[in-house]
Amino acid sequence: MDEIFEKVQTLVDRYEEVSEMLSDPEVIGDTKRFMELSKEEGSLRETVDTFKRYQAVVTNLEEDKEMLKEKLDPEMEELTKEEIKELTSQKTDFEDQLKIMLLPKDPNDEKNIIMEIHGAAGGDEAALFAGNLYEMYSRYAEKQGWKIQIIDENRTEIGGYKELVLMIQGDNVYSKLKFENGAHRVQRVPETESAGRVHTSTATVGVMPEYEDVDIKIEDKDLRVDVYRSSGAGGQHINKTSSAVRMTHLPTGVVVAMQDERSQQQNRAKAMEILKTRVYNFYASQNEAEYSEMRKTAVGTGDRSERIRTYNYPQNRVTDHRIGLSLNKLDRIMNGELEDVIDALVIADQAAKLEELKN
């Protein structure tokens, strides 16, 4: 634990340094610098508070152990021993918390995300399930206080989506939804199934962090822009005007379609913002082969055998195959109660990282 304490003490020293800097008139006068330091102080606060509580427990534990060396009456001795037992348990809990807090953080955890949902294997039923997943994530986002916006959609005639692209904005969105990448399998009796047979279909989910103010310039010569009439709701204005925009970045083949806004100008601006994020993701992976492999790993082909999670309607059960978690509350999960699944995935990820540190 000595090495961990050294790391925590370094963070405590930095926290105190940043707190002092935030009271400096020069820093207060520099809005950008002040915001950066405020964010850093906020990110350190929980670890520093936990360490201080840990130190208080250790101090009390040492004092109680010293008391036992003295001659105490039986009742006081028993109370002291009970307190030592409780403090020892608290000490272990705080040590575990500090280990987790010191794990390397994903730099994208605090970012907003772009989510892509595709109906995959299973035809119309897969598209309907893609719509169910959208509703599930929408309800979860609402519970978290996040903002969700449809960027592009391709609906089917019977309902559901062949493709749906969303932006989800709020606190720590990527940290909670990054494990949703992959193929999601549904087992249920479709509404169109007269014989009552259970069918299996899949939808794929892809999650990318949104990069704000990315330092990337997209040249006009590398961009093709197509405008067309929006297929979404919006009344006569949208139906009669070519307000929707499709942008293609020719060097990478990255395509963004945007029809959510009322005017073509607004759609152009939003499409360019999303395009920059996707192109940045492309170049960040260094080459096209790496990018394609990353997308394949994240989203999968949608084949029934490629799944991260199964939603079994007849048994009201959800199973996450990566961690072997099964919960018999599918109805509640589809209503946006994803906390138990997401928390279990986060804990499993932390456990794996802690195991790596030991080796």
Form type: flat
Instruction: Give the uncertain stretches in residue-range form.
Output: 233-239
Radius of gyration: 26 Å
Number of domains: 3
**First-last Cα distance:** 16 Å
Strand content: 15-25%
CATH architecture of the largest domain: 2-Layer Sandwich
Q: Enter the CATH topology name of the largest domain.
A: Alpha-Beta Plaits
Strand order of the largest sheet: 2-3-1-5-4-9-10-11
Summarize this entry quickly.
The protein is of the alpha+beta class and about 350 residues long. Helices cover about 50% and strands about 20% of the residues.
Give the secondary structure arrangement, pairings included.
Layout: H1 2-21, H2 25-29, H3 31-68, H4 74-101, E1 113-119, H5 124-144, E2 147-155, E3 161-169, H6 173-177, E4 182-188, E5 199-209, E6 223-228, H7 235-240, E7 244-249, E8 254-258, H8 264-284, H9 288-299, E9 309-312, E10 317-320, E11 325-327, H10 330-334, H11 339-358
Parallel strand pairs: 4-9
Antiparallel strand pairs: 1-3, 1-5, 2-3, 4-5, 6-7, 7-8, 9-10, 10-11
Helix pairs in contact: 1-3, 3-4
Pfam family, one: PCRF
Function: Peptide chain release factor 1 directs the termination of translation in response to the peptide chain termination codons UAG and UAA.
Organism: Weissella koreensis
General description of the model:
- By secondary structure, the chain is an alpha+beta fold.
- The chain has helices at 2-21, 25-29, 31-68, 74-101, 124-144, 173-177, 235-240, 264-284, 288-299, 330-334, 339-358; strands at 113-119, 147-155, 161-169, 182-188, 199-209, 223-228, 244-249, 254-258, 309-312, 317-320, 325-327.
- The chain has three domains: 1-101; 111-211 and 304-356, 2-Layer Sandwich (Alpha-Beta Plaits); 218-290, Double Stranded RNA Binding Domain (2-Layer Sandwich), CATH 3.30.160.20.
- It has eleven helices and eleven strands.
- The strands form two sheets. An eight-stranded mixed beta sheet has the order 2-3-1-5-4-9-10-11, with helices on both faces.
- A hairpin with a 4-residue loop joins β9 and β10 (317-320).
